Fold this protein.
Amino acid sequence: MGSVKTHQTEETINDFIERFVEKSAQKEDARFLVDFFKKITGFEAKMWGPSMIGFGSYHYKSDKSKQEGSWPLIAFSPRKAAISLYVYSGLESHAAMLNDLGTFKMGKACIYVKKVSDINLKVLENLTLFTISYLKEKYPDV
């Protein structure tokens, strides 16, 4: 059985931001997102692996492989090139919300934004709440 390599760690969020994020504007965005997602999700921020800040968690079993593990409900990573937002379920009904998000690029399961001011925060909130609702339905033990 496969398992994920990314697990919750004990590093503090502030230590991570100070160590990992270079520019002061990016640090401000990272701190803003910590507060933003905490308020929306009701979960404290926790470090996942070396560079992901997550909120809440769920245990999953992959439909396509034998992989299973725990993963944050919502997460982001303030990387050098862009902020990676893990708030998207990939559902077709969810995709329409992206139309009003703002300036971003799309990865396979992730939204990349240069800075928080490039996106509509109400849309980000709705994406986040939709994903949490979807995950709670799919994984009832959340």
About this structure: DSSP finds four helices and eight strands in the chain. Helices lie at 13-20, 24-41, 92-95, 121-138. The beta strands are 45-48, 52-55, 58-61, 68-71, 74-78, 83-86, 105-106, 111-113.
